């Protein structure tokens, strides 16, 4: 029997798929659908700020050729809402709580609240939201990334990971890994959407989303090579104790397989979950098992990280 399991920070995942933060995870109704979806091994909540945010004006998420573009602007129901949810459901399976403060002070305050709470699952600190006007992506600033992690690990003792933006330069892979390796991170999640892209509607010659003059983060099929490069580059550089959640461009079981080949432990689905709904997890699992059978593999460990080079 082929099993698809993973382990992060001592948590056993019975399946390796989950939603990407931001997709199907804003409300408890959506979260419940992912929680109970066949093929989904976990879920992550919409990145939370200390209190409710309406986010950017619509249209703020749309299909585009080969993927999606969004500038949601961090709409969310506030930390208490998501913290209550994961505390209530944490006995069902290991869960991820995502937070994305607009300032370091907000992030530290939220982590203090989580540290003091009954939540014992995994926290994903989102250092890569591309869509809040006037707020750069923290993880593109290596000194700021080191500074926040230094402060966090002075008090935070529960399992923590970071959501990273895509990097596009080998030197930047080296630089971010050098920072991350200095901390007891449980995992990194790579990649967030490729930020500040522009898609144009050929009928109207107009941008496709309203916020920020049409600039937004892209996801889906178009980002898969960038996602795979980031998973691979980080797996080659990070301490083995830091696990990797691969995110970006997952449409088929073959795409999941390729993320694992590059070193992913879990694989999350964003754009195509938005298009297809939570039934996608079971389809991806079935297709992944078929791909593994074709290659003669019985477990993920048989091929995780085994990308061949020429
Ligand atoms: O809410 C968003 O606009 C958003 C966030 Br926080 C993020 O991390 N990534 C993204 O593509 N959109």
UniProtKB/TrEMBL annotation:
Asked whether the UniProt record includes Cytoplasm among its keywords, one would answer: yes
Q: Which CDD domains match?
A: DHOD_1A_like (cd04741)
Highest taxon in the source lineage: Bacteria
Describe the reaction catalysed, as an equation.
Answer: (S)-dihydroorotate + fumarate = orotate + succinate
Keyword Cytoplasm applies: yes
Cellular component per GO, a single term: cytoplasm
Cite a single GO BP annotation.
Answer: 'de novo' pyrimidine nucleobase biosynthetic process
Pfam families reported for this sequence: DHO_dh
- Name the UniProt key words of this record, in alphabetical order: Cytoplasm, Flavoprotein, FMN, Oxidoreductase, Pyrimidine biosynthesis
Q: Which PROSITE patterns match?
A: DHODEHASE_1, DHODEHASE_2
Q: Identify the pathway.
A: Pyrimidine metabolism; UMP biosynthesis via de novo pathway
> Which cofactors is this protein said to need?
FMN
Q: Which GO terms describe its molecular function?
A: dihydroorotate dehydrogenase (fumarate) activity
The EC designation for this entry is 1.3.98.1
Q: Give the location in the cell.
A: Cytoplasm
Cited NCBIfam families: PRK02506.1
Outline the subunit composition.
Answer: Homodimer.
User: What family classification does the UniProt entry report for this protein?
Assistant: Belongs to the dihydroorotate dehydrogenase family. Type 1 subfamily.
Record protein name field = dihydroorotate oxidase (fumarate)
| UniProt organism field | Weissella soli
